[in-house]
UniProtKB/TrEMBL annotation:
Keyword Cell division attributed: no
Domain HTH lacI-type: 6-60
Record Gene3D superfamilies: 3.40.50.2300, lambda repressor-like DNA-binding domains (1.10.260.40)
Protein name: LacI family DNA-binding transcriptional regulator
Organism: Gelidibacter salicanalis
Alphabetized UniProt keyword annotations: DNA-binding, Transcription, Transcription regulation
């Protein structure tokens, strides 16, 4: 039996038992005696038997496999979400396979096709920045494959969603700047083609309106990807204005860190002259000097909740809910970048 995979039939022949008995023994079936289970497992280990997961999935109609589609793995938020998903999936004996869309709609559609052709029990996805219509995801429903979206979620069809309240979080961040004494407040915004960044901009504006502060359009700078270099560009544009904002809310931490570094080189004191708030609580927010006040978007919990909701649907076939929305609460973490004397 060298140089080939040991099969159930090989074990059955060697132990003079049926293949079905061998299979049940390896699966700890209650109908099989402990002595038989022990005998079978010992022989399987000795011969190097590896269970055929594909055959097993045909028998149980489950692959114990989840597909994950993320825009980019190298963004800390998504890596934390993946970690939360993987943690919960592992505890429930599910495997995960991760795909990156790289924020490209074409690539996202190709990944969806791959997952529809593979045997996965469920899919967790965050839409790419380019995605406007989500028809390519609708086939999962026809195939009976549960689907959960997180963070960037569709608006054109009902689906299970795990989100945060971006409007409320941005409102809280901006109101904190106002409470710190800021009167001229700016914002570095994400792509307004994406609902979460639209909501953050609207939350920012709503806080200013509530406190009777002006919305100055030259204080609102737009980016494509909220990258570090875009943050540097925005910082220099602020420096070119006749008057600097005395507070700035950034739609992510990368751009906020850019502001701190550029302003410090220009001898702008933070937070005395400009107080800065970021969004996401990336590790760099605790490294940069001064430490960055930010919104903790609870990415790990978002991943856990996504996996929990998906596996609940996989395991409970009577669970017909396919349009549940769970909102994860965020928190404002106050650090030195807004602590004025």
């Amino acid at each position: 039996m060298k140089n080939r995979r040991i099969t159930l039939k090989d074990l059955a022949k060697d132990l003079n038992l049926s293949a079905s008995t061998i299979s049940r023994a390896l699966d700890n079936h209650p109908a099989i005696s402990e002595s038989t289970k022990k005998l079978v497992k010992k022989k399987a280990e000795k011969l190097g038997f590896i269970p055929n997961s594909i055959a097993s999935s045909f028998r149980t109609n489950k692959t114990k496999s989840i597909g994950i589609i993320v825009p980019r793995i190298d963004i800390h938020f998504h890596s934390l979400v993946i970690s939360g998903i993987e943690d919960y999936a592992y505890k429930n004996e599910y495997n995960v396979t991760i795909f990156q869309s790289k924020d490209c709609l074409k690539r996202e559609k190709e990944i969806v096709k791959i997952l529809q052709n593979r045997m996965v029990d469920g899919v967790i996805a965050c839409l790419s920045i380019e995605t406007k219509k989500c028809d390519h995801f609708k086939k999962f429903e026809k195939l009976g494959v549960p689907l959960v979206f997180y963070d960037r979620v569709p608006t054109d069809f009902d689906a299970n969603k795990i989100i945060i309240n971006d409007f409320e979080s941005a409102f809280t961040a901006t109101e904190h700047l106002i409470a710190s004494g800021c009167k001229r407040i700016g914002h570095i915004a994400g792509s307004q083609k994406t609902n979460i960044f639209k909501a953050r901009l609207e939350g920012f504006k709503a806080a200013l309106v509530k406190h009777n502060l002006p919305i100055q359009e030259d204080f609102i700078l737009h980016t494509k990807n909220l990258g570090y270099e875009e943050g540097v560009t925005c910082a220099n544009r602020f420096l070119e204005l006749p008057e600097l904002p005395d507070g700035i809310f950034c739609a992510n931490d990368y751009t906020a860190v850019s502001l701190i570094q550029v302003f410090r080189k220009a001898d702008i004191k933070i937070p005395q002259q400009v107080a800065i708030v970021g969004f996401s609580n990336y590790p760099i927010s605790k490294i940069i000097e001064p430490h960055l006040t930010t919104i903790n978007d609870c990415a790990f919990q978002m991943g856990e909740s996504s996996a929990k909701l998906l596996i609940r649907q996989i395991e409970d076939k009577d669970d017909s809910v396919n349009s549940e929305t769970i909102t994860i609460r965020t928190e404002l973490i106050v650090r030195e970048s807004t602590k004025r004397a």
